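Note to self: keep these together.
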Amino acid sequence: MSHPLAPAPVAPPPLGAWSRVWRYGVVALVALLVWVLVAWDSITASGTREEPPPGDVGPVGAALALDALLGLAAVALLPLRRRHPVLVGVLTTGATALSGSALGAAALAVVSLSTRRRWREVVPVVGVLLAATLVYEVAFRPAWAQVDLSLPGALGSVALALVAAAALVATGSFVGARRELLVQLRERAETAEQQRALAEEAAREGERLRIAREMHDVLAHRISLVGLHAGALAYRTDLGREETAQVATVVQENAHLALEELREVLGVLRQGADGAADAEAVAEPPQPTLAELPALVADARDAGQTVTLRLDVADGHDLARVPATASRTAFRVVQEGLTNARKHAPGSPVDVVVTVGAAHAVHVRVVNGAVAPVGAGAGPAGGVPPWRPPGAGVGLTGLEERADLAGGRLRAGPDASGRFVLELDLPGGAA
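Structure:
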């Protein structure tokens, strides 16, 4: 359990001009009132006093002058209370042994010291204050005021000083705790703001990566078909009118589909920050799954690829029950494999095997021939164009990220016979 005066590593805020003025003003007012009370008490105290000779102020006048000087000195020490809190506290409270007007400065010093909430510093200063009060009541005041010592009165003054010191320490401790709480709340607010900004930046970065991945997956397939057939038109000069029209139709259709898919992706980008789409935005299209594999393979065959598709589904399972994330990831792997085969091994046959096992575990294997040199083999319209779509080299990286998110593993590379193999393993129940 922490002590009520536990150390608080919070620096006090700097004081403005008005804060200094009213503090010192209160201290000066208290000092003046106490000095007047001491003077009145010394004048009206009972007892026989000898009149001092002319020109001699006597012990009362000397004591009152000393009281005022020590009070002024105590006030002059107050600007140093933040740099040297213990020293100023000891000097100002010690001055109260000979000066009642130093009580105001001593009180402010004790409060200021207590805001640090360090009992090892506060207790000695309070002890000095109680000792100074006892010295004032037992030794100093009876000597110059010419009054008899009253032990009950002295003990009462010490008890009153103890109560006042407790109130001052409690006040300073409360001010320090409130100051620390405000600093903590400010730091928490700043930390929360920084975390919110970092979370927003991470969300934006994640969304940019997701959109970039989707645009690559959506457009790379179509653009590779367009580039392949357009290259055939430039490369094959022996095509008849009907064959040229057929290839141009494929180019036109795939370009149109690419624009439609791009419009769908950009429609998602035009959505507002609150998630509501504007008048021109469209809803995000459903993501393709393994159920669309036959259509994907048909497109590849129309483009002139030789593709063999085999679906092995275990008894009691079907493609529709494969978890959405696993099904979408498997589809993208097959799509990227076909696209890469068109780009890097045109004319080579592609074997696609998709196996759905127990608990809907998915295994995908896409195999194509070795990378063919430009102009080798057969391609669209009976020949391979001397052109290949440029690759950014991020397709496989994106597939690896998808596989990791789905809890699976992706392997890509040539096998012993030189064929390029793309394999995906997704555990059962991947979501």
